[in-house]
Amino acid sequence: MMKGDTMLRHDTIHHDTIHHGDVTIPVSRGGRGRPLVLCPGLSSTQADLHELAGLLRRDHDVVTFDLRGHGLASAAGRYSFVDFLGDLGAVMAKLGDLGLPEPPLLVGYSLGADLAVHHAAGHPGTVAGLVLIDGANPVPEPFVTEATLPRFRAMWEEAARDTTRPVALTAQEILDLNVEIDAVRSRILDRYRAIDLPISMIMSTSMAGDGGEEHALRFNRNWRAGVERLAREHPRVAVTWLDADHGLVFTHAPAIARIIRDAPRDPAAS
């Protein structure tokens, strides 16, 4: 399966399964070049990220996987930020056992970006650099508030009625996770301070869309304010803005792949 000493063709994908507690996590690996781990976000799967992963495999040895309750991963008894962080940790530990030629670049989308920051902060020396796609944002205000709760509840309840949706989480579980993610991001600047690695952010200019609705404008302002806050405290973080909404990883995969290829790595990790 995931051979650590084999140079894989970029069009050959190898599949494996990791057992993490009572959860099974499907892992895919393919490509050639420097190692890279691509972590999906809440309600997204490695299948959703197939275009970006395929582009990256041209010059990276790419590992993708599904978080618990997503895609081909098994459902779990509970879903929390710590549980998802453990899923990422299990994948990274498996790769560590394979004797890769160098630590991987860790790329995370949305919630996956937050997981990447927390993993890197807690495991120095195991990652060559971070690329954070529309996540891990120290926004000054929470997104889920008493005023916005009905809107978010309706959105996730509608999504839960889609029987083709490859996510086992209920609308309430996703809503609870969004509240938890708000709390995690209110403290994430401390995690950034613990990281001595090159960090690149790829952020959407209109994460909530650009239709002009007041709530979307407010969310977008909050999103930009969070990035500006991070840039003030950590000017070494390189930020690229894409004219897109939060679905940028699906709509702008070629542009994102180019940015990732140019992302700096820690020289000490080579």
Provide a brief overview of the structure:
38% of the residues lie in helices and 19% in strands. It has 9 helices and 8 strands.
In the CATH hierarchy, the third-tier topology is known as Rossmann fold
Give the CATH H-level superfamily: Alpha/Beta hydrolase fold, catalytic domain
Order of helices and strands: EEEHEHEHEHHHEHEHH
The CATH level-2 architecture is identified as 3-Layer(aba) Sandwich
Question: How would you write the strand order of the largest sheet?
Answer: 1-2-4-3-5-6-7-8
User: How many extended strands?
Assistant: 8
User: Main beta sheet: strand number and arrangement?
Assistant: 8 strands, mixed
Give the overall pLDDT as a whole number.
93
Radius of gyration of CA atoms, rounded to a whole number: 18 Å
Number of helices: 9
Count of separate structural domains: 1
Structural class by sheet pairing and helices: alpha/beta
Q: Considering DSSP H and I runs of 4 or more, what fraction of the residues is helical?
A: 25-40%
What is the approximate shape? globular
Low-confidence stretches: 1-10
* CATH class category label: Alpha Beta
Distance between the termini: 24 Å
Beta percentage is 15-25%
List keywords for this structure.
270 residues; alpha/beta; Rossmann fold; eight-stranded mixed beta sheet; 19% strand; disordered N terminus
What does this molecule look like?
- By secondary structure, the protein is α/β, with parallel strands linked by helices.
- It has one domain: Rossmann fold, CATH 3.40.50.
- Helix content is 38%, strand content 19%.
- It has helices at 50-56, 81-97, 111-122, 149-160, 171-186, 188-193, 214-233, 248-251, 253-261; strands at 13-20, 23-31, 34-39, 60-65, 105-109, 129-133, 199-204, 238-242.
- Strands 1-2-4-3-5-6-7-8 form an eight-stranded mixed β-sheet, with helices on both faces.
- α1 (50-56) runs parallel beside α9 and α4 (149-160) crosses α5.
- The radius of gyration is 18 Å and the shape is globular.
